[in-house]
Design brief:
The chain has about 375 residues and is of the alpha/beta class. The protein folds into two domains: about 180 residues, 3-Layer(aba) Sandwich (Rossmann fold), CATH 3.40.50.12780; about 160 residues, Rossmann fold, CATH 3.40.50. The protein has a nine-stranded mixed beta sheet with strand order 2-1-11-10-12-13-14-15-16, sandwiched between helices. A seven-stranded mixed beta sheet has the order 7-6-5-3-4-8-9, sandwiched between helices. Helix 3 links the parallel strand 3 and strand 4.
């Protein structure tokens, strides 16, 4: 067999991180923090903080394939863990805080998590379950201050952890087939089952969903992933955004209509993604208060079947193009996306909505 010799680089998340820093240094990541403040920084600042965290993790003894657990919403510190953990060769394990306590214990123990990073909102939950976790050695709160609880002994502060670390890092050469992230799916019988993402699957998925007939991710976009970062890696948006240099807007814990409307308008969001229940809440808030979301051009809805009423209202009243997706954790995770083809543009609105209510064509991953 004759092999081509082009492009032998390993397809790793490190490549996305380095590309974003080199070619899109001025693009922004904006997030709502746990204390309801807005945090804003550029990609190059994000990169330096990822390096600081990487140095801290290695200094703390984290080795290749170690699992780093997170119990957190969508914000900049969670993003830093996404990249630092995976790019040093460890595995970023996002845990769904909405699960039952016994499931959280099972998941953390089954994964053999070594560290647990958690938002301040989950301090009480972590305190209750701490004695049930068998492998976790260190607990780090994603904040700049320790909780004032009497039993906060043994909890470290994220900003203290990275404060004195170098802002550069010698990234290891990883195998693209190496595990990069771990998500547990409850779409199964019995206890949730762990699904390992590889660097290769993550990078190729980001390329695929960025395509023009898919999410069409562009440098000029401002993207709001309402889908949580603990839900199948937020459908790959944290990777696709950085790959293309888009502005990334992270809503934090508050996924209600007022907070989402404020972020959509103030950050001039062009693309948003989330589950139907979130969009129903946003529609209700918009309609009750006679508000607009003029900057939004398109949206992805998935996680469960989208009622045709959602598609119709966003399309007709708010001029937002709706793309209906389907996937599962094992697919990295988007599997299909329903978007109109050129020959369907002249169909009646009802016929178009019927097509958009389907999950559409396969995503090439």
């Amino acid at each position: 067999m004759l092999y081509g010799q082009m492009m032998q680089d390993q397809l790793t998340i490190t490549k996305i991180l380095q590309h974003a820093n080199r070619f899109h240094a001025g693009s922004q990541i904006v997030s709502k923090t746990s204390d309801d403040k807005i945090h804003r920084f550029r990609y190059d600042q994000f990169y330096r903080r990822v390096c600081q965290l990487a140095n801290a993790l290695v200094k703390a003894g984290v080795q290749s394939d170690d699992r780093i657990g997170t119990l957190a919403w969508n914000d900049h510190r969670h993003m830093e863990i996404y990249y630092a953990a995976s790019c040093i060769g460890a595995v970023c394990h996002t845990i769904n805080p909405r699960l039952f306590d016994d499931q959280l214990t099972f998941i953390a123990n089954d994964a053999a998590d070594k560290f647990l990073f958690f938002d301040p909102q989950f301090y009480g939950k972590v305190s209750e379950l701490k004695d049930t976790f068998e492998s976790i050695e260190r607990y780090i709160v994603l904040s700049d201050a320790k909780p004032e609880a009497a039993d906060a002994q043994g909890v470290e502060v994220y900003e203290d952890l990275i404060a004195n670390e170098a802002e550069s890092f010698d990234w290891p050469e990883l195998d693209e087939k190496q595990a990069s992230a771990l998500c547990y799916t409850s779409g199964t019988t019995g206890n949730p089952k762990g699904v390992l993402f590889s660097h290769r699957s993550t990078l190729i998925h980001a390329l695929s969903v960025s395509g023009g007939d898919w999410l069409c991710v562009r440098q000029k976009d401002s993207i709001l992933p309402v889908v949580p970062m603990f839900h199948a890696n937020a459908w790959g948006i944290p990777y696709a955004a950085l790959m293309n240099g888009a502005k990334l807007v992270l809503p934090g814990y508050a996924l209600d209509g007022p907070n989402l409307h404020t972020m959509l308008n103030e950050e001039q969001v062009t693309l948003m993604a989330g589950v139907p229940t979130v969009w129903l809440g946003l529609l209700d808030y918009l309609n009750r208060n006679n508000l607009t979301i003029d900057s939004v051009d398109r949206m992805m809805v998935g996680g469960s079947a989208a009622p045709m009423a959602i598609i119709r209202e966003f399309e007709e009243k708010y001029d937002v193009r709706v793309m209906h997706g389907w996937g599962m954790t094992e697919l990295s995770p988007v599997g299909t996306l329903g978007a109109l083809k050129s020959h369907q543009a002249n169909l009646s609105p009802e016929d178009r909505y019927q097509i958009q209510a389907l999950q559409g064509a396969r995503c090439l991953v």
